[in-house]
Specification:
Layout (H helix, E strand, L loop, with lengths): L1 H19 L7 E2 L3 E2 L5 E7 L5 E6 L5 E3 L5 E7 L5 E9 L2 E9 L9 H15 L3 H11 L6 H6 L1 H18 L11 E7 L4 E7 L2 E10 L6 H17 L4 H13 L8 E6 L2 E7 L3 E7 L1
Parallel strand pairs: 2-8
Antiparallel strand pairs: 1-3, 3-6, 4-5, 4-7, 7-8, 9-10, 10-11, 11-14, 12-13, 13-14
Helix pairs in contact: 2-6, 3-5, 6-7
């Protein structure tokens, strides 16, 4: 009886050791290097569902991942430098790590605050009449260091000053970009459209505009979207009017049932226009 008891204990111990080692902490990823598509790189892979899986970007904070049917997926926002992503799978005393690379993405602008300023200026100018714009252009060409020129054009300078005051007053009521922005965040969100961007260390890396297609059929909402689209394009170095003209051609030729994408390139900026049944997506990158 004693021998039988010892044999059963030995078998039980062996089973426990076997079960504790049956979980495989191996990590498989779909790629070794990932390119950013739009605003993020999508990292996919497989590991045993019993594992605890975490990832770190460039040695930063650990993030735990969910594993479903041995598969995992997560997104890494683009930056202007390569990023090392360390994956760690743990089960009991077993640990496996794997490092993948997210390739760098050229930023739309290296100074996001400048983009905000240029955007605000363009929005303000869009609210002026043609005659007011002409007055500002005339005033700009006057040599204010020449006293005789100042006296000769004092009416133009006075009108220009009044227009500048008008712009300053309207500034607080006009559409503006979110100033203190970081990470992937909404710069503007209203009932007409959403402007989302990836901001890293005050650099504007990329952006996405999302518009319900029904809003493009509404005159007022379409005008608001167009004004912001042109102003944002100008602020990142593209020719807003040229982009808007090309965009209007693309949307007119689009069939409502299509979900394909089209690409517009202007002054080094790429606009990837995607359509769904309900929304229009514009991915803006360099």
């Amino acid at each position: 009886m004693r021998k039988k008891t010892i044999s059963l204990l030995a078998i039980a111990s062996g089973c426990i050791l076997f079960l504790s080692g049956c979980s495989n902490t191996k990590i498989e990823t779909s790629k070794q290097e990932y390119q950013v598509d739009g605003m993020t790189a999508v990292v996919k892979g497989k590991t045993d569902s019993n594992n605890t899986l975490t990832y770190q970007i460039d040695g930063g904070k650990k993030h735990q991942l969910q594993i479903k049917n041995r598969e995992f997926v997560f997104q890494v926002p683009g930056k202007d430098k390569n990023q090392k992503v360390k994956l760690t799978a743990k089960h009991g005393s077993q640990t496996t790590t794997k490092v993948v690379t997210v390739k760098k993405q050229e930023p739309l602008s290296k100074n996001y605050q400048e983009v905000c300023e240029k955007f605000g200026q363009t929005i303000s100018m869009s609210q002026l009449s043609q005659s007011e714009l002409e007055v500002l252009q005339k005033a700009k060409n006057i040599d204010t260091q020449n006293q005789s020129e100042v006296i000769k054009n004092q009416d133009v300078l006075r009108q220009a000053k009044e227009i500048q005051t008008k712009i300053a007053k309207s500034g607080s009521n006009s559409i503006s970009l979110k100033k203190n922005a970081s990470g992937i965040t909404n710069l503007i969100k209203n009932q007409t459209f959403t402007l989302r961007a990836n901001i890293q260390s005050n650099q504007l890396i990329s952006a996405t505009i999302i518009v319900p297609t029904s809003n493009l059929k509404n005159k007022d909402k379409a005008k608001q979207f167009g004004t912001v689209f042109v102003a944002f394009s100008q602020a990142i170095g593209a020719n807003g009017k040229e982009v808007m003209e090309e965009f209007e051609k693309e949307t007119k030729s689009q069939n409502n049932s299509q979900t394909t994408s089209k690409t517009i390139k202007n002054h080094g900026v790429t606009y990837s226009v995607g359509f769904s049944k309900t929304d229009l997506y514009i991915y803006i990158t360099k």
